Amino acid sequence: MSGSGFVWVRPPSALAKDFQDYGNLVKTMLHAAASKWGQETADEARQNAVWEDRTGNARSGIFYAVDGLGEGTKIGKVDVGVDYFKNSAGAVVNRGRTYSKDDESGDANTVVIAISHTVWYGQKLELSNGGRYAIIMSTIENRLPQLESLVRKVFGN
Fold this sequence. Notes:
Blueprint: H1 12-48, H2 57-60, E1 63-68, E2 73-75, E3 85-86, E4 92-94, E5 97-99, E6 111-116, H3 122-127, H4 136-154
Antiparallel strand pairs: 1-2, 1-6, 3-4, 4-5
Helix pairs in contact: 1-4
């Protein structure tokens, strides 16, 4: 029997499904890596903030959120004692200020990591005195190599 010499071991439809499953797994792993990095970054910002925190709310209220890649929104741990909750739309609400995923959100192909304050005066803490006491952006910038390392691990590099 002569033929082309080419035989499918697995049909193309099975290969297509495997590629789709792999893509979904990569997105899940990237979202998990972003969440891990976000939590560690928020923890480090809490620990290293140099401003005086008279009530404890500012320091304990630094949080992270991750959105996108079809994995939904994950809002990180906020320490006990902070007046914080998620409303029915999943937005973080604190003392009248709503932090919504609509502020900046990811999509099926994009992930967004946010590190922020839950206290209404968080912006003042970051920007007053010429930014001398800012902790959010400096912590993000210092931890970018760890994020790169986590992403490389997702892809096996």
